[in-house]
Inverse folding.
């Protein structure tokens, strides 16, 4: 009999799905097996047209407390290069559907980097976020020096990366690092509600909007505006555009079909 997976995918039948990391004995720390399993499920989701929005969670107590130090303590440079771990992170970041991170408790190191691969972060009031890698003699290696800087700016990112200190959810909200802060008990429910709301919208428009935001962030303003404009123009060829505008004029709810 096979061992139960430490990463599970649940499709809810309403266009939403939940990815859950379940290693409570190590506060959901990410080892190689967990990262591979998560990447595999993300690749599966990317090909699933029935799923329109995804919640990523670690459960009600902790999101992900970081990478598994036991997994790295005796690892050398050659092994780290051979792992090509960037492939696993890329699979998460490249899921075309919107991803909502439901963050309770610790989101540290690789845990914060994982949350930053998502599009929306909903954090509990008691959440603690940080990039503490410097405390164990390394630096962030999955976006902690890059996505973090793009999210909150150079000086706040430098403070977090160079000191390794944790910040609370409210401070993270003020910085722009999380989207919303809610009571700890409501985090997953609010994340799922957000996913359900997105899943009712025209999926082609949602995915084009996500693509424009992500790709435009690293482009010049003229190039980014052109990308946005082309995305808008493409929507005028969709049945959902016609349905959405007709429904608005008819004062009725639209019935989007992803066409």
């Amino acid at each position: 009999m096979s061992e139960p997976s430490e990463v599970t995918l649940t499709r809810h039948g309403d266009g939403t799905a939940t990815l859950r990391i379940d290693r409570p004995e190590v506060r959901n720390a990410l080892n190689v097996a967990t990262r591979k399993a998560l990447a595999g499920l993300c690749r599966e989701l990317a090909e699933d047209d029935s799923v329109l929005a995804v919640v990523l969670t670690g459960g009600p107590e902790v999101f992900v407390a970081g990478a598994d130090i036991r997994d790295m303590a005796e690892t050398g440079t050659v092994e780290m290069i051979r792992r090509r771990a960037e492939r696993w992170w890329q699979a998460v970041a490249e899921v075309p559907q919107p991803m909502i991170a439901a963050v309770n408790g610790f989101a540290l190191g690789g845990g914060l980097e994982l949350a930053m691969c998502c599009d929306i972060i909903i954090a509990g009031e008691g959440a603690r976020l940080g990039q503490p890698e410097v405390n164990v003699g390394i630096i962030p290696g999955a976006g902690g020096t890059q996505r973090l800087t793009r999210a909150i700016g150079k000086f706040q990112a430098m403070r977090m990366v160079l000191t390794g200190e944790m910040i609370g959810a409210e401070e993270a909200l003020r910085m722009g690092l999380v989207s919303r802060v809610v009571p700890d008990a409501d985090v997953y429910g609010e994340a799922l509600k957000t996913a359900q709301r997105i899943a009712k919208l025209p999926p082609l428009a949602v995915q084009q909007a996500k693509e424009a935001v992500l790709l435009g962030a690293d482009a010049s303003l003229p190039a980014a505006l052109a990308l946005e404009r082309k995305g808008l123009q493409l929507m005028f060829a969709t049945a959902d555009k016609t349905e959405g505008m007709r429904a608005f004029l008819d004062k009725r709810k639209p019935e989007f079909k992803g066409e």
Remarks:
- The beta strands are 7-11, 16-21, 53-57, 99-103, 106-108, 120-124, 128-130, 167-168, 180-182.
